[in-house]
Amino acid sequence: MKIICIGRNYVEHARELNHPVPAEPIFFLKPDSSLLRKNRPFYYPDFSQEIHYEAEIVVRICKTGKYIEEKLAPTYYDSVAIGIDFTARDVQQRAKEKGLPWTKAKGFDGSAPISPFIPLSELPPIDRIGFHLTVNGQAVQRGNTGEMIFPVDRLISDISRYMTLKTGDLIFTGTPSGVGPVKVGDRLEVYIEGRKMLWCEIK
Ligand code: MG
Which residue in 11, 148, 167, 172 could disulfide with 56, CB within 3.0 to 4.6 Å? Predict the structure, then answer.
């Protein structure tokens, strides 16, 4: 399976990082070794001094497709989770300055904590799902899938022009504004529609 992550999919987040709003979806990959399941702790890596959290709605692909039309995209996913796209912001910044790939900044072990999946049938429509992230009990990120620049169906259509989507592939759909650093000892919790889905201690 592969993990496809969308960059700059919320206007306010693009602004907080001083990026223009993109004209088409930006995406990158994380390896499966980046997944962190079952609320396991995150160990602060030695190659970064600036790890940021990014809370994101994650969509699970449920059948293989290529060149998927946007109107058929809803038949290609069946469940949703919440994840954190941990980012070594300092490593990413150096890569950006040199025009190098973001892989080291985004794809390291443990950089993708993920909650259990909820079937779509138990949630509001895909473009009306609210979520938020707390750090040590304080809400720091709030988002709703309705605020995405490119909605889920458009993302699936666009990604599948470039790479075949397969059952079990995951799409991290981008983060709203409010990203920030974590430090050892922090406890992160992430909620979908007010329901606590994921927590993660920074060690
Ligand atoms: Mg992200």
Answer: 172
Between the CA of 119 and the centroid of ligand 1 the distance, in Å, is 23
Distance 17 CA to ligand 1 centre (A): 12
State if pTM tops 0.90.
Answer: yes
- Output the CA 36–ligand 1 centroid distance in Å: 15
Total domain count, the chain: 1
Q: What is the per-residue pLDDT across 67-86, written as a single tens digit (0 to 9) for each?
A: 999 999 999 999 999 999 99
For residue 76, give its domain range: 3-201
Model confidence pLDDT, tens digit, residues 141-194: 999 999 999 999 999 999 999 999 999 999 999 999 999 999 999 999 999 999
How many CA atoms within 13 Å lie on the side-chain side of 29?
Answer: 10
Pair 133, 139: CB distance under 8 Å: yes
